[in-house]
Amino acid sequence: MTSAKIIARVANMTKTGKKEVITFSDYSSKGARRVEVVVRAFTAFCCIAVMALVVFLLGYLFIQGIGSISWSFIFDSPRDRMTGGGIWPAIVGTLWLIALVSAFALPVGIATGIYLAEIAKQNKPVRMLRVAIANMAGVPSVVYGLFGFAAFSLAFGFGKSLLAMGLTLACVTLPVVITATEEALKQIPKEQRQAAMALGCTRARTLGKVVLPTALPGIITGAILGLSRAAGETAPILFTGVAFFAPVATNITQPSMALPYHLYIMATQPTTPAPHIVWGTALVLTGILSITNVIIALWRSAKRRKLQW
Amino acid sequence: MNKPAKEKTNKVIRFQTGLQESRRVVSNGLIEKITTFRNTRALDSMATVLITVFGWTAIFVLIGIAGFLIHSSMRAFDEVGIWSMIAGTDWFPTSSDARYGFLPAQVGSIWVTIVALAACVPIGVLSAVYLSEFASSRFREIAKAIIEFMVTIPSVVFGLIGLSVLVPLIREYLPVDSGLIGLTAGLIVGVVCLPTIISISEDALRSVPRELRHGSFALGNTRWQTAYKVILPAASSGVFAAVMLGMGRAIGETMVVLMLAGNAGIIPGSPLEAARTMTGTIAQETGEVVRGSVHFAVLFALGLVLFVSTFIINLIADMVLERSRKKWRR
Amino acid sequence: MVKTPATAMTSSVEAVASKTASFDLQNVSVSYGSEKALEGVSFYIEPLKVTALIGPSGCGKSTLLRCFNRMNDAIDNVSVEGLIALNGQDIYAKAVDPVSLRMYVGQVFQRPNPFPLSIYDNVAFGPRTQGVRKRDELDEIVIDSLKKAALYDEVKNSLKKHAFELSGGQQQRLCIARALATKPGVLLMDEPCSALDPISTGMIEETVLHLKESMTIVMVTHNMQQAARISDTTAFLLRESIEEPATLVEVTDTTTMFTQPNDKRTENYITGRFG
């Protein structure tokens, strides 16, 4: 019997004046418990379905792509009008982009994170800055592409080049790095800062000798996450210098191939499809990003276990 | 201890000497620092200034985005006019009688977004409820790691898997000629949005104070009753913010819709028709357009519409999220 | 040895360079924003003595302690009024750099807060900040400090071990060693034993008794027995109601305080009638 029924019984008793004893055994939550079991199973099903989807995506990619992976697929240039050969120029292009994004986005992003966590006071302009950064993360990647095209390719005169692509992707990555740095710094207990200050450290020294080294695993994790997001982006580089075919890039003023664009363009060719190249490229791209992320996650959790406050 | 030999060399000596001695010299050390305090301060404030300057660079990027979009689309506003773009029903940018109506792209984006949210909000929120209310902490950790791993898969790869797995299924089971329709794109975009929705709503649910949960348990409520009577209402603003952020991602998603939505330049009547979204239009045409032409400016204007709409959505999400955070802060 | 550019500094140089460190407080008040936390505190802290600050929680003991090395500077909207003089020099004077003040006035915190570094690097942290680079000099300071903090025998074979692997009591003694490595003239201790077991507490108390031979110690404690055991002078602070700021009720030598307190309120507190 649910509590609603009990309440009704009590009301009835006062109305009729008849008395009966209600004991603990009269209370029962059988119905509620049955609902509980069903709901629990259903929500668990949703959750497990999502997890299964991730496993399926990765597994499917692996099965489809593993056959194409070979020494020559990775280290050769495309041949036979893009239906044979390898993807080396695209791999090199993506590595170039990662290097450029690191060079531009990491210093600015980490410095901004430090500013927000350590220096900024809680006032209106800073609140605006935070809102701006939160919103930067939500700007569609193709809009970054338009911006990069107008700003870096045209206005700054970098044309269609690795440099223009790298700068555009750096803007995409910036909010990820900023947020990760700020979060990592906020995790450092304030007792640590006080201890350093009580030993006569200036704010800069406290930051450099105590806070930053401790927060480094978190900052690096965030940086890698941001870089791997940049490496997988296609839309921001569409107009700023990515090429259907280009030889291995040797400097940053050249246009270049890149893995995600190569995958996109090969997958949407209406004629002469080369599925092994498509799946091979997809596996190489996802594989590089996944392995990097797994390694960094394991490293981080090992570090964290050591640094339990 | 060998104090006299080193006495004159440097300030280090104060650490070497005996107790009585050390106090005296350390005291001198204090004075020494007092007289040179400008140096330590200067370094400190230099670092501060440098970091502050860098810190504000980020805002220039955002202002730069808005500035360049507005600047490059000026010609479109002058020659086409804002209303004939936003409310225009025809998109014929290359015909001799060019028409630059955004409605086909806007409606296409809306259909894709509706399908995406319809697919991922229920599953995402229910998964979040399971993770925060029912799951053991060990299961939760593993599940979150796996689900958040999805973020590392690039959206082109989602597009590719959509092409190869979902398109044939749609073609087989639905009365459509090609599988490249709004529905296909929407479903895959929904998958792309799942990790955002799950992790943000799970955070919102878990930030509800434990006392509230215990209060509900103590009244004889089961976990599910607690979840939907107490926790979900209490965390509603956070869950709402999660949905808004998911919506922002869905509208902004480019590669998946470019590969899957069919890209027909008409106003789609339902998700079962081929659609072309705002992002898809920009991605497809900007690379080939003549620089400085009206068409070029119109594409930037479309980018501006996209920027403003996602900006507003994110701003709302941000405000709601901030308020819900404040609610439990003491 | 020390270059003093301005004559204006000379008098204060002599003052601070006098033999041992003492604090003179005159009418010290501390406010958080517009709310006064502590008002009108005046007393003298004798050199080479242990001074205990006692009182019920929320009475401003820790707030007062943080004034002595200007750690309150780091907290927004805290303002300190009145005079706090270290050996006759106002430490809130403009010319005083709080950073260098803190090298001379060390602090040990409520909970052990070692840095995530090795034992050695923790102790060497302060000297390195002051520019000591030579290995043998650092070694000597580290070993000396660890000995004074009564930790050396336990860790002498594992100086490279991560500080977090030590027990709580060992961590706190490490923090003491770390503070001693800058050779301070004053050591501030903010309830240093509140997170420790009785055995570790005993070891730290013994350390304190040794240390007072060479430095002035100011200790906040909520444990009256501890104050009675190790302090020479005891100051009793009290906040009588939530509307009023806390004040200094009484300061006398510890024996008098715990046998025949002058003030009724002190007696009530000591005999456990409130607090």
What is the CATH architecture assignment of chain C?
A: 3-Layer(aba) Sandwich
Order of helices and strands of chain A: HHHEEHHHHHHHH
Helix content of chain C: 25-40%
Oligomer: heterotrimer
- Most extensive interface: pair and counts? A-B, 92 and 91 residues
Strand order of the largest sheet of chain A: 1-2
Helix content of chain A: over 70%
Task: Give the CA-CA distance, first to last residue of chain A.
Answer: 49 Å
CATH topology value of the largest domain in chain A? MetI-like fold
Strand content of chain C: 15-25%
Q: How many structural domains of chain C?
A: 1
How many H/I helical runs of chain A?
11
- Within the largest sheet of chain C, what's the order of strands? 6-7-8-3-9-10
Output the CATH topology of chain C: Rossmann fold
CATH architecture of the largest domain in chain A: Orthogonal Bundle
Shape type of chain A:
extended
Radius of gyration of chain C: 19 Å
What would a concise description of this structure say?
By secondary structure, chain A is mainly α. Helices cover 72% and strands 1% of the residues of chain A. Helix content of chain B is 74%, strand content 1%.
